[in-house]
Structures are given as structure tokens and as C-alpha cells.
Design goal:
Elements (H helix, E strand, L loop, with lengths): L6 E2 L1 H8 L10 H13 L8 E5 L5 H8 L4 E6 L2 H13 L6 E5 L12 E6 L9 H11 E12 L2 H4 L4 E5 L2 E5 L6 H11 L1 E7 L24 E8 L2
Parallel strand pairs: 1-8, 2-3, 2-5, 3-4, 5-6
Antiparallel strand pairs: 6-10, 7-8, 9-10
Helix pairs in contact: 5-7
Length: 233
Amino acid sequence: MTTHTSVLSPAEGYALWAANYPAHAHNPVMQAEERAMLALMPADLHGSNVLDAGCGSGRYMLHALRRGASRTIGVDLSDAMLRRAHAELTACRFDAGIGLAQGGMHALPVLDAWADLTISGLVVGHLEQLHDALRELHRVTRPGGAVLCSDVHPIGPALGWQRDFRHDGQRYAVRHTQHLYSHWHAACKALGLTIEDVREPMLDPADIPAGARFDRTALEVPVALVFRLRRAL
């Protein structure tokens, strides 16, 4: 997590990153975030419609399907990431009840109240307006349904951390906007989303590869902000 000058928009960044983007949590921050998200996800999703908004390479679609989700839709802004997700889902032999669609978080191509569970992992930080993103997640979730949503902890950007990757020997970062807990609270209150649970996971030292160079402060602070929200009946 170091400072870089080549900062790309999400569309530009993921177009480059997609070819090598795994369908699993592939760094210690994502591993910490995923443990918290999965702890808040229902263990049994049989009979449920699950939407993954900003699905990337499909990692949370895979988790939902393994927990028995009946129908899943993955939406992502990046066509390259959707192709990656399709390849991963096919490789894992999931092909029934699955849809993939291109679209942004400001206008998800999903019917009102379609999802019993809506997931959005590490996506909203790519958007400048948190309220607009949560409004769409609220719209596509049925009354009484749940939204699992995560972001890089606001401490990270304050310390200069970036969401970076390497492509053709050059390192890039994807643009990120810091959203404070107070922003989440205000947006949820305005939209009728109840904050049922919030987690602030920290790194597990066991996840850090031997000899890795990173900001040691990361071991002393939360690295993600993870919410379970509930749409009012």
C-alpha cells in the first residue's frame, strides 16, 4: 500500500486488471473484508434471489451459490470483469439461475425489489456519492430484505493507502473516495435502511506473505468497514 501517480478511473482500471483478477480474496485486506462479509451472510440461501452489485470476477456470486441461492445476478460496470466472472462461474460448473449484466451502481439493470439479499463488496468507494449508490441498493432489495455492503475503511485513504495493481510492469491505482461512518449513517437514515450490524475487521498477520513490504500501521487499525443493512417493510 504505497502512493502512486498513475491513478485511473474504475472503468479504466478494471479494464486493465480484469485479465489477472482472481475470483477469490487475493490479498490480506480482501481476506479480512471477506471473513466479515461471510459472517454476516445467511448460511442458507435456498429459495433466495441474490444480487451482486459490482460483482467483479464473481467471488460473492460463488459464495452465494455455494450457500444454495436459487437465482443470482451479477452486475458490473466493466465488460472485461463480467467476462472474467462468466469464466469463473463456468469453471465452477454454476450455470443455472445465473445472470450477468453490464451496468453502473447509479442505475442497476435490475427490477425493483428483486433481491432477497443484495451484496456489494468493496465497490462504493469507487463512487463519489455514497447516497446515490445506497439508494439503488435499496431500490433493488425487497422490503424486509438485507444488504451486505463493504468498503475500504476510511482510515486507509487517510494513511495514503491505494487500491493498486501491476500491469505490463507498471503499477496503477484505481480512484477511491473516502466515505466516513457518519456518511453511511446519514444516507441509511434518509433511505430507510436500518444498520443491523457493522464490522471493522483487522488484518490477520497469518495472511501476510513472508517478506512482504507493507505499511506496518495496517496491523494496528481496521482495514474494512462492513455493514449488514435491512430495508424497512
